[in-house]
Amino acid sequence: MSNPIVEAVQKHPAPEGLQYTYGTAGFRTKADVLDSVLTRVGLVAALRSRSLKGKWIGVMITASHNPPEDNGVKLVEPLGNMLQEEWEVLSTEMANKANGDEVFKFYQDIASKYKIDLEAPARVVVARDTRASGARLLGCVQDGLKAAGAEVKDYGFLTTPQLHYMVRCLNTEGTKDAYGTPTEKGYYEKFGAAFKTALKGRKPSGSLTVDCANGVGGPKLVELIKHLPPKEEALEIHVVNDNVIKPESLNVDCGADFVKTNQRAPPSSKTGPGDRCCSLDGDADRVVFYFKDSSNVFRLLDGDRIATLVASFLGDQVRLAGLADTIRIGVVQTAYANGAATQYVEQHLKLKVDCTPTGVKHLHHAAEKLDIGVYFEANGHGTVIFSNDTLEQIAKYEPKNPGQAEALSVLRACIDLINQSVGDALSDMLLVEVVLAHKSWGPQEWLSTYTDLPNRLLKVLVKDRTIFKTTDAERKLTSPEGLQKQIDAEVSKVRQGRSFARASGTEDAVRVYAEAATKAEAEDLARKVSELVK
Ligand code: 16G
Ligand code: ZN
């Protein structure tokens, strides 16, 4: 008798000699070696859904800021969170099974280990970014899902955060935690309406130019704009780099990763001094802002800046609403956060800072422990999450005066404006605009809140990056032995020095970060530490 799972797997055989790993961003590599992985991910998604009594599980086909020839896939948990770690391990193992029979055996092993009823319903939603390989890889996932007997909802093209939103909406529909209507229109209406309310009639100054990395964020932003208040009343947005007809232009000389890594605007940028700009990445889950100052110098407003801006604003609103005694705000960063940003939050905003290892899931987990957790990586990944208690307090609080009522209404609109399921470039972008409008700030005022310490990030190629083991949220090496002592010695030689080395989770390299009082000292420190690492 034929077995549909074995057949689906044999239809997409694994290339020989390759090892796949479900890493910080799911599976991600050259698109032409991913067919087998996608089929197996379909099987895992169906199992995961069954293990959660048929809750909707998300499958997003994207390689974010990677070059056009790459692709990838990640799984999304029912409330829009990243896949549980235990299932990352299962996914890795599944991806590396040799053939259909082995895959089928492992499929059954998982089912018996987790007491999964293979006849129970499985529900999976899929979406993809605009990469040329997306359609083929979608077919591979579909084959896996069909073989596993899952019910499938295909949303076509979506940004990664939109897919997370759909998953959360589908799983909360009709409950007291209902998150929204699980349609694209529902997404635009929810965020568009919240933006309008949060602005409270204020009009952001000037305009905002949005570089969409020639990715899926482009057409989705164009749709979103139709649901925002008219530009005469609110925000004027110029959409650039939104060419998805030419997938080979994705992330090329544009996008958030280009801007953050090169510390300069996309070469095609035509904006003048003082004009606000931002760049999304290829799947629109990251955003960084920037502008040219009056001397035509490029100025970056990265994830650290978004975190400080938003934390300060939410702190003000909580205080104005009369809730400062019961609601505590905290900021979650990684070791890559500029020392000046950390100091600003702790000493000026007087808020608690937590540091976690790199990767959204680590920051998200830490933020979940706070009443209001503002988390951003310097590279622009991030969002704000509110605990259930906090949401309830804000919903129920009776304002004592018009000032409190106004602040409460802003807070409530911000809660709706912030995508709680995951960091969302479009939602984060609107939030920043709301805060700037409330503060009547342009980018220069935003930049002036503190001065970044000069810093340098280097990539070091090593023989074996797995020997680099860290502790203290990646800020200290425990192996190779003795190396941390040598780094400490170099750090102590420069003023305001800080440096760390960690193995990359996405590339075969070690990353070295250094900062110091001057550019020369930071560069020097980064070079010295790189020499030690080599
Ligand atoms: C992944 C992570 C990102 C992190 C980056 C670090 C997610 C969704 N993405 O792209 O947050 O900043 O890896 O890369 O978690 P690295 O380990 O190569 O430095
Ligand atoms: Zn991304």
TrEMBL record:
Residues 57-86, 98-174 form the Alpha-D-phosphohexomutase alpha/beta/alpha domain. Keywords: Isomerase, Magnesium, Metal-binding, Phosphoprotein. Residues 475-531 form the Alpha-D-phosphohexomutase C-terminal domain. Its EC number is 5.4.2.3. Transmembrane segments: none annotated. It is an enzyme of class 5 (isomerase). Residues 182-288, 302-441 form the Phosphoacetylglucosamine mutase AMG1 domain. Coiled coil: none annotated. It catalyses: N-acetyl-alpha-D-glucosamine 1-phosphate = N-acetyl-D-glucosamine 6-phosphate. Pfam families: AMG1_II, AMG1_III, PGM_PMM_I, PGM_PMM_IV. InterPro entries: A-D-PHexomutase_a/b/a-I, A-D-PHexomutase_a/b/a-I/II/III, A-D-PHexomutase_C, A-D-PHexomutase_C_sf, A-D-PHexomutase_CS, AMG1_II, AMG1_III, PAGM. Binds 1 Mg(2+) ion per subunit. Its cofactor is Mg(2+). Belongs to the phosphohexose mutase family. Catalyzes the conversion of GlcNAc-6-P into GlcNAc-1-P during the synthesis of uridine diphosphate/UDP-GlcNAc, which is a biosynthetic precursor of chitin and also supplies the amino sugars for N-linked oligosaccharides of glycoproteins. This is Phosphoacetylglucosamine mutase. It comes from Paraconiothyrium brasiliense. The lineage of its organism: Eukaryota, Fungi, Dikarya, Ascomycota, Pezizomycotina. The gene is PCM1.
